Amino acid sequence: MGTPSRPPEPALVRLRVLLVVGALAVALALGMLERASRSKPALAVLGQIPPFHLVDERGAAFGVDSMSGHATVADFIFTRCTSSCPRLTARMAELQGMLARKGCGARLASFSVDPENDTPAVLAKYASQAGADLARWAFVTGPLDEVERVVVSGFKMAAQKIARDAGDYDVIHGDWFVLVDRDARLRGYYPIDDTSDLETLVKDVQALEARR
Questions:
Q1: Which of 201, 202, 181 is nearest to 189 (CA)?
Q2: Shared domain check, 80 and 24
Q3: pLDDT greater than 70 at residue 137
Q4: What is the largest distance, in Å, between two alpha-carbon atoms of the chain?
Q5: CB-side exposure of 7: number of CA atoms within 13 Å?
Q6: Measured between alpha carbons, how far is residue 63 from residues 106, 130, 177 in Å?
Q7: What domain count does the chain have?
């Protein structure tokens, strides 16, 4: 008859239990992360940009096809604006740098809501002052009725000329960034007040680009 085996030491038993519990905890955490990544909701489709016919700062045609095949972040400005537009343009320039550092191929488009004043030449000068990379960032203008149609009916943004004294005027417009996907569909509206707002936008842009 063989010698009976000795029961394991209490410390060894505790170690084995801890190892088993630890392995189970890691497996559970990995499973939860996997399920969370699978269940994260995609950005909703909020609308479709209709066909339109405008021009960029070079006078080249710019339409819905110009936003196809890649994500686009749009905003709405005019060069005579001294209130929200400088802040919008500065934020867009910041976004331009963030996307470039991420190696993201998304594009930017700033639509003038004062096209009667903002000719392509005026926008080209404004783009230069903003430090715009025109390979990535377009400045868009065109006939007033076409601009109003695409901004209001397409992007669902406010844009209204307001008369002021001495024949002058202002333009009331939305100060949000609008995310459009590669199929020219509206996917989100983003405030610009904090850098964290831009970080959220960058993540959503990258998510859309990754779904190509």
A1: 201
A2: no
A3: yes
A4: 115
A5: 3
A6: 16, 23, 18
A7: 2
Q: Is residue 5 part of a domain?
A: no
CA gap 146, 50 in Å, rounded: 11
Q: Is 184 left (phi over 0), alpha (psi -120 to 50) or beta?
A: left
Residue at 4 is within a domain = no
Q: Which residues contact 81 (CB under 8 A, 6 or more apart)?
A: 114, 171
Cα–Cα distance, 159 to 75 (Å, whole number): 12
How confident is the model at residue 180, as a pLDDT? 97
Q: Are strands 47-48 and 159-163 parallel, antiparallel or unpaired?
A: unpaired
The helix (H) or strand (E) run that includes residue 86 is helix 84-101
The one-letter code for the residue type at 135 is A
Range with the poorest average pLDDT among 57-61, 108-112, 158-162: 158-162
- CA dist 130 and 124 (Å) reads 10
117-124 average pLDDT score: 97
Burial of 186 (0-12, 13-18, 19+ CB in 10 A): buried
pLDDT digits (tens, 9 = 90+) for 62-103: 999 999 999 999 999 999 998 899 999 999 999 999 999 999
Structural domain that includes position 185: 47-210
121 burial type by CB count under 10 A (0-12 exposed, 13-18 middle, 19+ buried): exposed
